[in-house]
Design brief:
The complex is a heterodimer of chains A (610) and B (130).
Chain A: H1 2-51, H2 54-57, H3 64-73, E1 79-86, E2 91-96, E3 116-121, E4 128-138, E5 141-151, H4 162-201, H5 215-265, E6 269-274, E7 279-282, H6 284-290, H7 294-299, H8 302-305, H9 309-318, E8 329-334, E9 342-351, E10 359-368, H10 370-405, H11 412-444, E11 452-454, H12 456-470, E12 477-481, E13 489-491, H13 493-509, E14 516-523, E15 527-534, H14 541-544, H15 557-560, H16 568-578, E16 582-585, E17 593-600, H17 602-609
Parallel strand pairs in A: 12-14
Antiparallel strand pairs in A: 1-2, 1-5, 3-4, 4-5, 6-7, 6-10, 8-9, 9-10, 11-13, 14-15, 15-17, 16-17
Helix pairs in contact in A: 1-4, 10-11, 11-16, 12-13, 13-16
Chain B: E1 5-9, H1 13-25, E2 29-33, H2 36-43, E3 50-54, H3 62-72, E4 80-84, E5 101-105, H4 110-129
Parallel strand pairs in B: 1-2, 1-3, 3-4, 4-5
The chains are: A alpha+beta (610), B alpha/beta (130).
Chain lengths: 610, 130
């Protein structure tokens, strides 16, 4: 639409320009024609006047009237003046139109230039003048000149020329709209095609362009329609393929995500190598195991993010240059030089689902066996420790029984001593075995607390008295602080006594000379709090986290020197937790150590359970 | 002939008593110490002919005592026997650096210990005679 309008404007502008050019040329032609007329008339008249004797033209001469006549009958609209000048150029007589002042002029000296024309300007209004001059001779002598001045023919439109201009312009004005209409008619099929193509491009679907056109445009439209149909078919096929690809891609993505989710959900760190040994997948747990990101594992060579020689060697075995290994492999190694993490890797060849004999990669599962290794170590340590703990009393028993059979056994004094020592060591063995048994039962879940309403003060007092008896030969101060009245609690009194005895016996065993053992019980609305404190060697911050671990014994030489099997605190905590209570170390204590038991009252425990 | 002196180092009093009794009855003069530190002090005033020590003891363990003796008395002539219930290798490793030292695993027979002392001290005498 815009284009055709622009063409219309161009046509109008071109036609107006053509008219203007024609009019200009006409004016030019007319002026040139008029100039030729003036020149012809001027030259002829100058010659005629030159033939008249000088004295007849000057004032008083017989022909002087000729000049006056010229003013009125010069036969030319442009006539401006006629002037007779003497040989020196002085004006002798002149006749000029009204308002015209004859411009001064220098007459030529050379005879060849006497007859001629020159361009001048009126002094009054600077209008251009074309002047013809001719000599006035008498017997060969130059007496003067006759000067004839004409106004330079002006351009412009004169009324007389209007019909001519109208004659020229009218057909042009009539033809321009005609041409424009014809042009629009010619352009119409193209515009229609353009509009239909616009709607096609706006997504209205493919259809034939229905445009009434004949000739070359008709052929073009027909070919164009064929092309559009062909392109439409191709595009539809492509769209169909694209849709299929999108569906396949979504399905693949879903399957990939599903597999990756499964691999991410596995408790083990997982790595997948392709047939060349390149890592193509690593789950988050693997990244965490090596403290790098998954992107780094996939993007960088294994040497960049791992310096463990065992792993480097393992992966290098699978970098076989295109042929995947088809056997499983299991290795165990420590992840770091500090040997704190024990890792077992198991590799599985991955076979193509379509060709089960073709290995397409390798799945490597990294299993962190640190906990198992620690547990194995702990079990080993425990057995060694237990063996030590059992051998010590057995050693005493063996020595005394052997001595009783020998010479020493013959004295009454030794037999009594031996009986006491044997009884003491049997107690020690019995306590160790009972502790072990209780702990094993609690851990295996086979021990259920035999709860009854118990006066905790009585149980605590009994345990306290036992501890005091144990330290009869020590100079410790014993303090017990119980509420005057205390509500009975629903606990297994035997188990609670074991827990309290363990805590109190530790307070006795690890106390300093002249030290203090204090047992305090406080009752609040919700709970009963039991505190067992001593002023002994205390527990370092490093060890505070481990003291409740089974079989743990302090590395402190002072603790090592005191008999113990590393089960007391672990068993006490298990017993308290079996009663849904808590047993913790008071970290705020600066000297000695203090253990705090919190036992929830029945109602509180029920509320918490709810 | 002066009696051979056997020292017993153990933190457990009943062990000290029963060993003292058994070894004395075999004809030795017995002195006792309750830990390594006490024994080391005694060594400043005189040496035994035989030393029996436990390992796990307060203040100074049997291991520390043996290492200290090895360092302070490089020309020691008396044998040492270490009574221990720890049979694992890592608990014996340190003894490789000390000469004239043997292990005896708990439970220990007093009779066997006495025979060991007899054989060691008897050998010494024989060597002297040669």
């Amino acid at each position: 639409m815009l284009k055709t309008d622009r063409i219309g404007l161009v046509i109008v502008f071109a036609s107006l320009s053509a008219i203007a050019v024609i009019v200009f040329m006409v004016f030019q032609y007319q002026r040139d024609d008029r100039l030729a007329d003036i020149r012809s008339t001027g030259v002829s008249l100058a010659r005629v006047l030159s033939g008249i004797p000088y004295d007849q033209l000057i004032p008083g001469g017989a022909q002087q009237g000729v000049i006056q006549v010229l003013r009125h009958s010069a036969g030319n609209d442009e006539f401006a003046y006629v002037s007779i000048v003497d040989g020196r150029g002085q004006t002798v007589t002149e006749v000029a139109l009204d308002g015209v002042i004859v411009p001064p002029a220098t007459m030529p000296i050379e005879p060849s230039a006497w007859l001629g024309e020159s361009q001048l300007a009126l002094p009054s209004d600077r209008r251009k003048i074309i002047e013809f001059h001719a000599p006035l001779l008498e017997a060969g002598n130059l007496l003067g000149f006759v000067r004839l001045g004409y106004l330079y023919p002006a351009g412009g439109l004169s009324l007389q020329q209007l019909p001519f201009i109208a004659t020229v312009s009218l057909p042009v004005f009539l033809l321009v709209p005609l041409f424009y209409l014809l042009l629009r008619m010619e352009v119409r099929p193209i515009r229609a095609a353009n509009q239909q193509m616009n709607s096609l491009m706006e997504g209205e679907g493919f259809r034939r362009l229905e445009v009434a056109a004949t000739g070359e445009l008709g052929d073009f439209m027909q070919r164009f329609n064929q092309f559009v149909e062909l392109a439409s078919a191709k595009i539809q096929a492509l769209e169909h393929d694209q849709q299929r690809l999108i569906t396949s891609s979504k399905l693949l993505t879903y399957r990939k995500n599903r597999v990756e989710t499964v691999l991410e959900t596995l408790p083990e760190a997982v790595m997948i190598l392709d047939e060349t040994g390149t890592i193509t997948f690593a789950n988050q747990k693997l990244a965490a195991l090596f403290s790098v990101s998954q992107e780094v594992i996939l993007a960088q060579p294994v040497q960049q993010w791992c310096d463990n020689p065992d792993i480097l060697q393992l992966i290098s075995k699978y970098q076989t240059g295109g042929k995947a290994r088809t056997f499983t492999d299991t290795i165990r190694f420590n992840l770091d030089t500090a040997s704190t993490r024990s890792i077992a890797t198991k590799t599985y060849p991955l076979f193509s689902p379509k060709n089960p004999s073709a290995a397409i990669g390798t799945l490597i599962i990294f299993r962190d066996e640190t906990q198992e290794a620690l547990a194995r170590q702990a079990r080993g340590d425990f057995v060694a420790h237990l063996s030590h703990e059992l051998k010590s009393p057995l050693n005493v028993l063996g020595m005394y029984s052997e001595s009783l059979l020998g010479e020493a056994g013959k004295t009454e004094e030794f037999r009594v001593e031996a009986a006491n020592v044997i009884a003491e060591e049997v107690d020690r063995l019995s306590s160790l075995i009972s502790g072990l048994l209780s702990m094993t039962q609690i851990e295996s879940g086979s021990l259920t607390p035999d709860r009854s309403l118990v006066k905790l003060g009585d149980v605590a007092s009994a345990a306290f008295a036992e501890a005091r008896h144990m330290a009869a030969n020590k100079d410790y101060e014993f303090h017990i602080d119980l509420p005057k009245e205390m509500n009975p609690v629903h606990v297994d009194k035997d188990l609670i006594r074991i827990a309290l005895t363990n805590l109190l016996s530790n307070a006795v065993k690890y106390n300093s000379p002249g030290g203090e053992v204090r047992l305090t019980i406080e009752e609040t609305e919700d709970a009963i709090q039991i505190r067992v404190a001593d002023s002994g060697i205390g527990i370092s911050e490093d060890e505070a986290a481990k003291i409740f671990d089974k079989f743990y014994r302090s590395t402190d030489e002072r603790v090592q020197s005191i008999g113990g099997h590393g089960l007391g605190l672990a068993l006490a905590r298990q017993i308290i937790e079996l009663h849904h209570g808590t047993l913790s170390l008071n970290h705020e204590r600066e000297q000695g150590s203090e253990f705090i038991i919190n036992l929830w009252k029945e109602t509180t425990a029920v509320k918490q359970a709810i | 002939m002066t009696m051979k002196r056997v020292w017993i180092v153990d933190d457990h009093a009943p062990i000290r008593r029963v060993l003292k009794l058994g070894i004395e009855q075999a004809g030795y003069e017995v002195d006792v110490a309750a830990n390594g530190s006490e024994c080391l002090v005694k060594l400043c005033n005189g040496h035994p002919d035989f030393l029996v020590t436990d390992v796990d003891m307060p203040r100074m363990s049997g291991k520390e005592l043996c290492l200290a003796i090895d360092k302070q008395f490089p020309n020691r002539s008396f044998p040492i026997v270490v009574l221990t219930s720890r049979t694992e290798l890592e608990h014996r490793e340190w003894t490789r650096r000390i000469d004239n030292l043997t292990f005896m695993e708990k439970p220990v027979s007093v009779r066997r210990l006495v025979s060991h002392i007899d054989s060691c001290l008897g050998d010494v005498e024989q060597t002297v005679r040669v």
